[in-house]
Automatic annotation (TrEMBL):
It comes from Streptomyces fungicidicus. GO terms for cellular component: plasma membrane. This is Transmembrane transport protein. The chain crosses the membrane at residues 12-31, 66-90, 111-138, 158-179, 186-204, 312-334. Keywords: Membrane, Transmembrane, Transmembrane helix. The lineage of its organism: Bacteria, Bacillati, Actinomycetota, Actinomycetes, Kitasatosporales.
Length: 341
């Protein structure tokens, strides 16, 4: 049964091996470039002012490329589920070729499991190898920039992509088993899994472990270290704040800007500082605006996860995806034994 499954899959396997070879060549080249630039960054980082400038230059050189690669790697599991998983059983059922196997000595569950194990293993190997190569290539960049909890970065490094690939493949296989039509199964798999990849990191991941809580005083220096200022739902907010005791932490949630008495800063006060702040000649990211806001004696409540929890999140999320993949496999075996004619 494994030999038959391999013969049916060999064209896709050769395509996957070729794509992985191309990815490997490029990432090995990119990894060398990043390491050379990292050596230059370290050589130029001889004091705090030079370090900030060198870090900014090093980050801007590779950030867009690595973000594009992380996004591309996030698509690999979705494409595997679409082009390897969804047609796997749907095509057999659609063309009626499954009857030939079922009339032999092979049972339906064994037929299904043989296909899932062989091609599922190939899916995990291809995705895991691509993730390992990208993790190696980007390591000096990640050590400097410290954005390991970013949605796309987290899902494209280390072991998490292995869980994504397993789930995408089994999900596509089960969708094909249920719909019994190849093209609809491929469309459903692609759309649903991509939506799931946005849903899980933004809704489920922050709740996998209880976050720590702290209150940060929004001094001019603290405001200038943030990434953005804005207004959502009438409340003035600050995004990308940094926690002094945990500078590399993942900020899960930030409250609106609040005054010393706990009142949310009024939009009129916020907009006044944003649009027409007193001219103080202050420097920094937000300059006079930061000084103006700091005069209101502001603070924010922050929920965050320390960077020390990174590997706990990696293992936990991977385990969840693998467990969901196992549940889908069990459901597929039950379905093909009980319901499929």
């Amino acid at each position: 049964m494994m030999w038959l499954s391999w013969r049916q899959f060999r064209v896709q396997a050769l395509f996957g091996a070729g794509a992985l070879a191309v990815i490997a060549v490029y990432l090995l080249y990119l990894g060398g470039d990043i390491r050379d630039a990292h050596d230059v960054y370290q050589a130029n980082c001889d004091n705090s002012a030079n370090c900030a400038q060198a870090r900014s230059q090093f980050r801007s050189t590779f950030q867009n490329t690595l973000l594009f690669l992380a996004t591309g790697l996030a698509l690999i599991p979705a494409l595997i589920g679409t082009f390897w998983g969804a047609p796997l059983i749907a095509r057999e059922l659609e063309n009626g070729t499954h009857r030939l196997v079922w009339n032999q000595s092979v049972t339906r569950p064994r037929w299904l499991l043989s296909k899932i194990l062989l091609i599922g293993a190939a899916s995990v190997i291809v995705t895991g190898a691509a993730a390992a190569l990208l993790t190696w290539a980007a390591r000096p960049f990640d050590d400097v920039v410290k954005e390991q909890f970013d949605t796309f970065v987290f899902g494209a490094r280390n072991i998490a992509p292995i869980g994504y690939a397993a789930l995408a493949f089994t999900f596509g296989t089960v969708v094909g088993l249920l719909l019994r039509r190849t093209l609809p199964a491929m469309a459903v798999t692609l759309v649903v899994f991509i939506a799931f990849q946005f849903f899980f990191p933004n809704v489920v991941r922050p709740s996998l472990m209880p976050p720590d809580r702290t209150t940060l005083a929004m001094t001019a220096e603290a405001i200038n270290s943030a990434q953005n200022l804005g207004s959502i739902g009438g409340g003035s907010v600050i995004g990308g704040v940094r926690i002094p005791d945990a500078p590399d932490a993942w900020i899960a949630e930030t409250s609106p800007l609040r005054t010393a008495d706990g009142r949310t800063l009024a939009s009129s006060e916020f907009n006044g500082c944003l649009d027409d702040p007193p001219k103080t000649g202050a420097g920094g990211t937000f300059g006079d605006t930061a000084v103006c806001l700091a005069e209101h004696d502001l603070h924010v409540d922050v929920l965050y996860h320390p960077s020390s929890r990174y590997w706990a999140f990696q293992w936990l999320e991977t385990a969840i995806y693998v467990a969901l993949s196992g549940i889908l496999t069990v459901f597929g075996v039950w379905r093909i034994r009980r319901r499929v004619s």
